[in-house]
Write a structure and sequence with these properties.
The protein has about 130 residues and is an alpha+beta fold. The protein is about 30% helix and about 35% strand. It has 2 helices and 5 strands.
Length: about 130
Amino acid sequence: MGRTASRALGQRAEQVAFEHLLGHGLTPVTRNFRSRGGEIDLIMMDEQCLVFVEVRCRSSNRFAKASHTVDTHKQRKLIRTAALFVARNRRFGTSTMRFDVIAVAGDGDMTIEWIPDAFRPGDSSL
């Protein structure tokens, strides 16, 4: 799969994940928050909880599930980027926060695995 096709698959997976979360009652805050240290695909509210969502996509689960690719290094980057987001957006400073992973598999009919509260900052040995 070429770079353009891979990017298109990733964007499609992110849109599928976004719609899935909307269907479960989450409300959008922002998409693709970027900082020097990393990027968070989706930031949403689940009632009073601020949710940072990492979307992972694989065209197939043949070698490894997409959800298994969020290793401790990636978790640390997400946690640091989330802290920067909250520092820049102080209105969320008192919100409960969690980190979710959505794993999308397939390049035709996509399957979705949503893992709420997939990891916590203390799990990543910051």
